[in-house]
Amino acid sequence: MSMPDISSLVNSLLTCQDRKTGHTALVKRSFTRLLVCQCVAMAMVLSLPLMALAARAFSRGGMGRVQPLEASVLPLTARAHVPPVIVPVRPTVPQHADVLVVAPHPDDEILGVAERMQTRLREGKRVVVLLLTNGEAKDIGEYEYSHIYSTQRKAESRRAAQMLGIPGADVLFLNFPDRSLSALQDDSATISPYTYQTRTDIDSYAPNTLYTHGALVSTLAEVLQALQPEEVYITSAEDEHPDHAMAPEYLREALSRLPDYHPAVYAYQIHGRVFTGEPAVREPKASLIDVFITQHHTPENERFLEQYGLYEELFTPLALP
Known about the structure:
The chain is an alpha/beta fold. The protein has 2 domains: 3-87, no CATH class; 99-318, LmbE-like (Rossmann fold, 3-Layer(aba) Sandwich). It contains 9 helices and 8 strands. It has helices at residues 3-21, 24-59, 76-79, 108-122, 143-164, 213-227, 242-256, 285-290, 299-308; strands at residues 65-66, 86-87, 99-103, 127-133, 171-176, 231-235, 264-268, 316-318. Strand 3, helix 4 (108-122) and strand 4 (127-133) form a beta-alpha-beta unit. The radius of gyration is 30 Å and the shape is globular. The model is unreliable at 1-37 and 48-88 (pLDDT under 50).
């Protein structure tokens, strides 16, 4: 039976009912309301699977944890009106680590400390990697691209750590602004020229933290207090990259807030290092460097990175409070 046939039948029934009761308009309106309510309810039910798929797809974006639609305690017809709830998820910091490697950008930890980390892991030590920035500096003003670029760099660091045997939970990102560590102030938040942000991301170690000098020192001190590593590795004050040269100053200030804690601190240099001796391919370090595809964008960069897979790592003890 077609839809017009059904409509005619309904009208006939309503008209017949009207001859007995004299309430045709009232019956029609009641029937119409019932039909509309049933259609709306059916539309809501049919839309739930699509909304659940959308919520799961959104949750894969890394911006937080989306509350599952099916886990809601709301009535079925009400769920269709509730948007996904974004909840900040702070990474869990290990209770103790034997070694902490502090790197200004994703890849510095591998270029400077990969073989030392491998040695400590073979000794049964727990190694944690702490990235001060996401390495988003690429093209000033390219907001969207900077976020994509930093996401790629973070993934590369996690992949290299995994290849070494370091679990993802032991790779932490502070998300302070790239190429701005030496410009952070205490009286106002720094604006990143690459992302236009003044606060850390929602998925960083300390979400929604202002880009200030004091906030970075406090966050670093918190990590040191929680981990209590016996060895700390950080870039050298002699490094030619301003972020690298500034990193040990943040470490010094953080340690000054922990007067009863005295780890062994070692500096490693990336930019401006002089390579000596006979080059020889060092595996698996050379393969780990290859993981950082985003950094192999010019022949000059290729040659720069290649050096760190050919020469022995060098460390200088630092006397910090």
